[in-house]
Predict the 3D structure of the following.
Amino acid sequence: MATLASSPAAAAAFAELRDSWEQRRLEPSLARRFLRRFPNDGAASLATLYLAFALIDSGDLTKADGELSSLTDLKPGAAADLATVARARSLRLHGAPQSALESLRPLVGKVIDDAEREVFLEELALTAIAAHDNYEALAYLDAWLRGVGESDRERVRLKINAILETLPRAVLEQTYRTMRQRGSASGYSVDTQKLVSARLARVAVDSADVALARWLLDLSGESAAQAGGSVGLELAELAASRRGLSLVSGKTVGLLLPIRTRELRDEAADVVRGVSFALELPRRAGVAAGVRLVTREDGGDQAGTRAAMEDLAGEGAAVILAGFDRASADRASAWSEQSGVPVLLLAAPSPSRMPKVSAFVLGERTERELAMLGAALVRHGVVTTAFVGDTDDDMTAARASEAEGLVLLPPTRCDVPLSEAGKPRFPVSGWMASGAQGWLISGPSSCARDVLRDVSRSLVGARGATARATEHAVAVTLEAGIPHAEIPRGLVVLSASAGLVPVLATRAEDARDEGVRAFMDRFGVRPSYWTALGRDAGALALSALGPLPQSTTSDPKAIVQRRAITQAGLFGSRLKLWTTDDTAMGSDRVLPRALRLVTWRAN
């Protein structure tokens, strides 16, 4: 039975109300105004239902339930059916989706008005999901998409996309398998199949799930652009990657490189030079194949690092070099311990992430260096010290290792921006006003150079260009080491030292070590701390991979055997290293290193 207005005036007012309802922009005030003017009109029941829906959508369930309770003795027809839908929505939002679903099922196939049918099908799908009848919900979503006109199809697609995000992956996978295997006989429209495929593609890309990406493309029989929708390109790259594959390919070394900041990129470039030098890459023409180096970018978070390292393992890497700071070393260590792939960590991880099974630590703990340097500053007569660091970990390490008798000023970051051209980048005047007598620097050598330059200029300006003054001390970590020739007059540098680091020579002929001379002849620069770490990591990897055959294997037993050979090689190698006086890895999986203090002044 149709529900109609009783007068021309009521019909005109209801037409405006109906239009707002169909456009999904009905305001409760519009429905209330109609009901005040025409409380006994034939269309009053529909106006009350529209008001109830508007109140539900605004979150006022109590008032909505009050409006619904006023509707009694509705005759069979559109109004009664819509009332059933409204009451079901209220039940669902009150936490009774099963009861709501039972009340809606009898209406399947009955509601024929376009506007009411869309409201009904949407509520039917949402109620089925709330009742955990997910497969039934997918069928209702498909019916909803089929039932709307072309002008509303894109709007409904967006709604269904949002609903699909709430469905479990397993449900989507099983339904999509049925869709592809049975085709049109599955009962699902092509549009719904595309929406489910696009949702699975998004899940695969967001979780870097290579297996899902490959499964989706294999099952769909379509291109990545067709199967993946808006993430088609990412889906193709993911499916084509080597992640998830387990193999060892000859003597392959993996290198995970950070690109997040300029400083990390500079460190990565230094490490690449050191690794390439140790592995004798690029290989000269005519030289037999030896070690292969493959690289990937560190994703910068847990998922990105895992994906990149899985990619390196899929490329056949028998050992991986990773971890340029504590956070990335933590991620790399966790992955190594879980996967069993040997990883050489270039930075020391957190105490809770120290390896026990398969990773090795080459980098130095910043706390050890800062503790030694802080004590050296105290011995030099320094009390108040300005601290400059590169990361939050540096700041934490400085506070934890503060030497007795040393007062650290509030820390300053290495990347402090230049406030004004021609002025010092670092707040030297503020440091001096606070009584700073020394500086402690933990960061790249570029940071140390800038601090030394600003401090030197400020000291000269304060006492006159030719005046002599009390010597100020600057303490620098291994990473921050700079050549003797770059030290400004009037400053003494207290530098952490280990092995050959820091290399003080600025010309190859001045280098005492033959290997360092060869490096400087080849690259034209002195090796930095990161270069030396890369060289040591490459040398250890080269030695450990020596016994491995050049063949590639995906046999699980052979992979385990080759990784065990690599582990034993990393423990058993005896080499001359650049970052330590020791020649072998420690039994605790940490490269032992005796720290020394080097003191020098400008000539």
Remarks:
- The first helix runs from residue 8 to 22.
- The chain has 24 helices and 14 strands.
- The CA atoms of residues 255 and 596 lie 29 Å apart.
- The domain at 366-497 is CATH 3.40.50.2300 (Rossmann fold).
